[in-house]
Amino acid sequence: MLVPETEPSGDYGPRPLVILLHGSGATGEAMLRDSKLAQTAQRHGFLLAYPDAGIPAGQGFVWNIPGIPTVTGEVPGPMDRDDTAYLVALADALVAAGCADPARIYATGLSGGGRMASWLGCTVPARFAAIAPVVGLRAGNPSAEDRMRPDPETCEPDAPIAVVSFAGLKDNTNPIAGDGGDRWGYSMHAAEQRWAQLNRCTEAPTTRWIEPGLYEERYGGCAQGTEVIARVSVDGAHSWVVDNEAMWQALSRHRRD
């Protein structure tokens, strides 16, 4: 875990915590390096945890998302570590130690780590103020009847949660349009729409250009001040297509009080 050297606000109490989840077959150390999120943590004073997933795969690890095959082709079984419980316990330990502010805990991740962050939003939303999946936004598993639709029974959060996602239009691994497969399935837009429904958003979705080559889709008017945002890089592929400053600004707007 990275603990910033300074606290810009001058408040040396419990700090915000961002849990950074690596992609399938990778490690937390590699994710920390590739995301360059450490610099943002140092600048803004948030704790940055970068754990390894619980299932070994090659030189790295994969996350246990029930019912979804990993990159090994196998569906996690009962003997595999419960990564949801593990990540909640990690956050709880940092809160109990007086390090992390329980109202400002966030999860982000790349690809399989983004899907794991989405799963946390589905299953333990009350423990997180917001999630920020990167090339991995999901809203439950693909439906068995139609892989291009999310199965509502696999994502039934008991509280609204802010969703801030990032994607690349040229991503061929987890394509924005969906692929109808067992691991990915439905489109990113279907995931956005489902989260907007779960968060009881009342405003019509909007699309705006942030800058050339980058646009944002947003659902507002959501319950408990939440929102659903997706930023899409036109030239981005299956990688960390994130402006880290913009991500932190979006996450830090939200608290779990």
Question: Layout of SSEs?
Answer:
Elements (H helix, E strand, L loop, with lengths): L14 E7 L6 H8 L1 H8 L2 E3 L5 E3 L2 E3 L20 H14 L3 E11 L1 H12 L6 E5 L27 E7 L19 H11 L7 E6 L2 E6 L8 E6 L10 H9 L5
Parallel strand pairs: 1-2, 1-5, 5-6, 6-7, 7-10
Antiparallel strand pairs: 3-4, 8-9, 9-10
Secondary structural class: alpha/beta
Element string (H = helix, E = strand): EHHEEEHEHEEHEEEH
| Principal-axis shape | globular
Report the C-alpha radius of gyration, rounded: 17 Å
CATH topology: Rossmann fold
Q: In which range does the helix fraction lie?
A: 10-25%
Number of helices: 6
Low-confidence stretches: none
Order of neighbouring strands in the sheet with most strands: 2-1-5-6-7-10-9-8
Question: How is the main sheet built?
Answer: 8 strands, mixed
- Gap between N and C termini: 25 Å
Question: What proportion of the residues form beta strands (DSSP E)?
Answer: 15-25%
The number of domains? 1
CATH hierarchy class name: Alpha Beta
Mean pLDDT: 96
Please provide the count of β strands: 10
Q: So, the CATH homologous superfamily?
A: Alpha/Beta hydrolase fold, catalytic domain
Level-2 CATH architecture: 3-Layer(aba) Sandwich
Description:
The protein is of the alpha/beta class and 257 residues long. The protein has a single domain, classed as 3-Layer(aba) Sandwich (Rossmann fold). The protein is 24% helix and 22% strand. The protein is built from six helices and ten strands, in the order E-H-H-E-E-E-H-E-H-E-E-H-E-E-E-H. The strands form two sheets. The chain has an eight-stranded mixed beta sheet, with helices on both faces. A two-stranded antiparallel sheet has the order 3-4. Strand 9 and strand 10 form a beta hairpin. It is globular. The protein starts with 14 loop residues before the first strand and ends in a 5-residue tail after the last helix.
